[in-house]
């Protein structure tokens, strides 16, 4: 009985060790001390933090609107900065994926085509959400008092409340799979986590913001 228990325990330990081998191999292909990796992580975390902090500051003070002479110009200017920051983020992530090692188990035809499918889906979500919201709607127009007539509920917002964020995440995941890049998967996970925090941060504030702006318009007679 004791011998059987020991044998069962040994099998479990061996199985656990075998399960760890792919994880160790995966991690071995990632250089976490690479300066370009650190830059990419900083860019990923900084972007949503930047636009949320600036947008809330604008909502409280109207500082950007006064500086640019109108809320519309201020919103467009912030939008252009956000676009440039996202280009920088994408470039830094691409550099890391190209310079760090590929992982052989990911270099398969089905993985490659799955990555392409994700990028097609991600692009569809991003482009369709931009077309549905417009420039100011996409780039935090609510914080500038540039409210849409009504909440967008059609495609792709009938699939998810944050299609721009998850479409962007799908693009990065697809790119990592196409490049058979372990570090790309890690960076994509950081992107998803950063967006998750941003969604939670924005979700607690935007409904209240829209309610305040709507009430102000009603009392001022602009609704």
From TrEMBL:
Keywords: Endoplasmic reticulum, Lipid biosynthesis, Lipid metabolism, Membrane, Methyltransferase, Mitochondrion, Phospholipid biosynthesis, Phospholipid metabolism, S-adenosyl-L-methionine, Transferase, Transmembrane, Transmembrane helix. It catalyses: a 1,2-diacyl-sn-glycero-3-phospho-N,N-dimethylethanolamine + S-adenosyl-L-methionine = a 1,2-diacyl-sn-glycero-3-phosphocholine + S-adenosyl-L-homocysteine + H(+); 1,2-di-(9Z,12Z-octadecadienoyl)-sn-glycero-3-phospho-N,N-dimethylethanolamine + S-adenosyl-L-methionine = 1,2-di-(9Z,12Z-octadecadienoyl)-sn-glycero-3-phosphocholine + S-adenosyl-L-homocysteine + H(+); 1,2-di-(9Z-octadecenoyl)-sn-glycero-3-phosphoethanolamine + S-adenosyl-L-methionine = 1,2-di-(9Z-octadecenoyl)-sn-glycero-3-phospho-N-methylethanolamine + S-adenosyl-L-homocysteine + H(+); a 1,2-diacyl-sn-glycero-3-phosphoethanolamine + S-adenosyl-L-methionine = a 1,2-diacyl-sn-glycero-3-phospho-N-methylethanolamine + S-adenosyl-L-homocysteine + H(+). Catalyzes the three sequential steps of the methylation pathway for the biosynthesis of phosphatidylcholine, a critical and essential component for membrane structure. It is an enzyme of class 2 (transferase). Its EC number is 2.1.1.17, 2.1.1.71. This is Phosphatidylethanolamine N-methyltransferase. Pathway: Phospholipid metabolism; phosphatidylcholine biosynthesis; Lipid metabolism. Residues 35-55 dip into the membrane without crossing it. One of its GO terms (cellular component) is mitochondrial membrane. Signal peptide: none annotated. It is found in: Endoplasmic reticulum membrane; Mitochondrion membrane. Residues 1-34, 56-67, 137-179 are lumenal. Belongs to the class VI-like SAM-binding methyltransferase superfamily. PEMT/PEM2 methyltransferase family. GO terms for molecular function: phosphatidyl-N-methylethanolamine N-methyltransferase activity; phosphatidylethanolamine N-methyltransferase activity. It is a multi-pass membrane protein. InterPro entries: PEMT/MFAP, Phopholipid_MeTrfase.
């Amino acid at each position: 009985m004791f011998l059987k228990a020991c044998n069962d325990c040994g099998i479990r330990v061996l199985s656990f060790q075998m399960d760890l081998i792919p994880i160790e191999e995966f991690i071995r292909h990632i250089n976490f001390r690479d300066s370009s990796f650190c830059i990419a992580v900083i860019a990923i975390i900084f972007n949503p933090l930047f636009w949320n902090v600036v947008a809330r500051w604008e909502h409280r003070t109207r500082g950007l609107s006064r500086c640019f002479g109108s809320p519309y110009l201020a919103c467009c200017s912030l939008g252009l900065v956000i676009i440039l920051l996202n280009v920088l983020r994408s470039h830094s992530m691409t550099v890391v994926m190209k310079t760090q090692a590929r992982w052989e188990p990911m270099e398969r035809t089905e993985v490659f085509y799955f990555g392409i499918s994700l990028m097609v889906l991600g692009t569809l979500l991003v482009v369709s959400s931009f077309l549905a919201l417009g420039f100011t709607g996409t780039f935090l127009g609510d914080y500038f008092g540039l409210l849409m007539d009504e909440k967008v509920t059609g495609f792709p917002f009938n699939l998810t409340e944050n299609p721009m964020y998850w479409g962007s995440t799908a693009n990065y995941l697809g790119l990592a799979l196409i490049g058979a890049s372990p570090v790309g998967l890690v960076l994509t996970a950081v992107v998803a986590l950063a967006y998750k925090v941003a969604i939670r941060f924005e979700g607690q504030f935007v409904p209240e913001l829209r309610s305040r702006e709507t009430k102000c318009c009603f009392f001022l007679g602009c609704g």
